[in-house]
Every structure is written in structure tokens, then in C-alpha cells.
Specification:
With 270 residues, the protein is α/β, with parallel strands linked by helices. Helices cover 43% and strands 17% of the residues. It has helices at 18-27, 49-65, 76-81, 83-89, 100-108, 121-126, 128-132, 144-149, 156-169, 188-197, 208-222, 248-257, and strands at 7-12, 32-37, 70-73, 94-97, 115-119, 136-140, 176-180, 203-205, 239-243, 263-265. The strands form two sheets. Strands 4-3-1-2-9-10 form a six-stranded parallel β-sheet, with helices on both faces. It has a four-stranded parallel β-sheet with strand order 6-5-7-8. Helix 1 crosses helix 11. The longest helix has 17 residues, at 49-65. It is globular. Bound molecules: D-glutamic acid. D-glutamic acid binds at residues 12-13, 16, 42-45, 75-77, 120, 123, 145, 181-183.
């Protein structure tokens, strides 16, 4: 049986991973979540690989020390650049990342045309998607995550910047566009509106639900669950969120996903 204290550790540089946390919470409502947004170092996508690894390792250590049973790297930048280092160092813990489920999905359901990819500099530079999929056209869109982290989502300036990036990507009809940064899930409607406006049939893929499904399957297969139904009374479910620096917008954005959010400052770097 699933232990009633089962806890999933989730991390990202900021609010992006909340898109993944929300999908996991929706699909696996009986498990507790422990979330860390490393707002002290956001954006990770512009940092060196060594820095990204050191942030990811320290946060993983914190999550393990706080009794997480599995860890979800809810960040494409860290999944692309720090996964090997994390699994080498913490071989005892089951790790999930946001890239593998999308690769699997696209291998099962290849698009008719190209695969467009937008992500941070370090995700695109790593070549993680390009090495595993053919027909990938990728560009780095580094300004988007900081705009989203600042809460500039329904915003004309964000849409203008988005338009400039997507014009440069120039995808043919019937391609797919991968949102290779968990922050971009928050502007998926803006991206879909852009393609609707120029009359292009592009399927925009945000991997949050794919990861959540993978985790739900893992819980079913490994904990003998025939049916994952919330049983909040029997369960001691608690969702807890931390940020590593003051972030004016984190709370506001997080409330869209978790109305009764329990958020605190975590002095991980002091
Ligand atoms: N949300 C992150 C990702 O998926 C990182 C954004 C950033 O911090 O640059 O890559």
C-alpha cells in the first residue's frame, strides 16, 4: 500500500515547476508535495552547467533530508544539464525528469512535420532533445522565463517578444512546438493565440501532464494501487512550498495553482 506519508519532492528555479506540481496534485491527490523554487538563482537557464548542477544537488539533498520518497526535476534546464550528476550522487532515490516523458510521447506519436523547440540557453545548448529526436528546430528564448517569473503573462510586451521569437522559429504547418521550459506552461494560451492569429496549425505541447501520468503509473505499479482516489481524511496530505529568496510574484502566481498555498522562505544559501 501507498504509505500515508508518501511525499514527492519537486524543484525548479522558480514558479515554472508549479505547472508540473499542479498536474501531479491533480492526478495523485493523496500524496504530499514538497516544492522548492530556487528564486535566489533564477534564471538557471543562463548559468554555467557547473552552477546548475550545484543548485540542483543542494536542493535534492534538502528534499531527501526532508523525507521525500521520489524527486521530480520540474525544470528542463536541470533535467538537461544535471540529471546524470544528481542520479550519480543520489542513487538511492527514484528520480523523474521532464524530458524523458516527452521524448517517449513523440516517439510513439511522431508529428507529421517538424518538432519546434523553445527553451532556455542551457537546455538548447545541451542538445538533449536534438540528440534523441529527428527534425528538431530549436531556438533559445531566454527572456521568457524571467518575464513569466515577474508575472508578466497577460502582457503586450511579453506577447511582442514571444512573437519575435516564434517568427524566427518559422515552423511549417502541422508541426508541433515543444515548450522546453516549465515556465512556458503559463503562457501556453499566448503561444496558441499567436499561431491561431497567423492561421498555422501547430500543436503546442507542455509536458507537465505527461510527467504526472508517468508518476501516477509508477505509484500504481510499485505500490499496488488499483485505484488512486483521494482519501484525505485517512491521509496526512500536506503540500509545502519554499522559495530561496523573496519573490513578490511567486505567491501571486502560485495561488493560481494552489489556492491555499503554504509558502515559506528557505535559507538554503545563507
Ligand atoms: N523553468 C526552468 C526550465 O524548465 C528554468 C527557467 C530558468 O530558470 O531559466 O528550464
Amino acid at each position: 500500500m501507498l504509505n500515508k506519508n508518501f511525499k514527492i519532492g519537486i524543484f525548479d528555479s522558480g514558479i515554472g515547476g508549479l505547472t508540473v506540481a499542479k498536474a501531479i496534485n491533480d492526478l495523485c491527490p493523496e500524496v504530499s508535495l514538497l516544492y522548492v523554487g530556487d528564486t535566489a538563482h533564477m534564471p538557471w537557464g543562463d548559468k554555467s552547467t557547473a552552477h546548475i548542477i550545484s543548485y540542483a544537488i543542494k536542493i535534492t539533498e534538502f528534499l531527501i533530508q526532508n523525507n521525500c520518497n521520489i524527486i521530480v526535476i520540474a525544470c528542463y534546464t536541470a533535467s538537461a544539464n544535471a540529471l546524470a550528476a544528481i542520479s550519480d550522487k543520489f542513487s538511492q532515490i527514484k528520480l523523474f525528469n521532464v524530458i524523458d516523458p516527452i521524448i517517449l510521447f513523440l516517439k510513439q506519436e511522431p508529428p507529421k512535420n517538424n518538432i519546434g523547440l523553445i527553451g532556455t540557453k542551457q537546455t538548447i545548448r545541451s542538445g538533449t532533445f536534438q540528440n534523441q529526436l529527428s527534425q528538431v528546430i530549436a531556438i533559445a528564448t531566454p527572456i521568457l522565463a524571467p518575464l513569466i517569473e515577474e508575472g508578466l503573462i497577460n502582457n503586450a510586451a511579453t506577447d511582442l517578444i514571444l512573437e519575435q521569437y516564434l517568427t524566427k522559429l518559422d515552423l511549417a504547418d502541422q508541426s508541433v512546438l515543444l515548450l522546453g521550459c516549465t515556465h512556458y506552461g503559463l503562457i501556453k494560451p499566448n503561444i496558441e493565440n499567436y499561431y491561431a492569429k497567423i492561421n498555422k496549425n501547430i500543436k503546442v505541447i507542455d509536458g507537465a501532464m505527461l510527467v504526472a501520468k508517468q508518476i501516477k503509473n509508477f505509484l500504481k505499479n510499485n505500490f499496488n494501487l488499483s485505484n488512486l482516489k483521494p482519501n484525505l481524511e485517512l491521509n496526512s496530505k500536506v503540500n509545502k512550498f519554499y522559495v530561496t529568496d523573496d519573490s513578490e510574484f511567486f505567491l501571486r502566481s502560485a495561488k493560481q495553482f494552489f489556492a491555499d498555498i503554504n509558502l515559506d522562505f528557505l535559507p538554503l544559501w545563507e
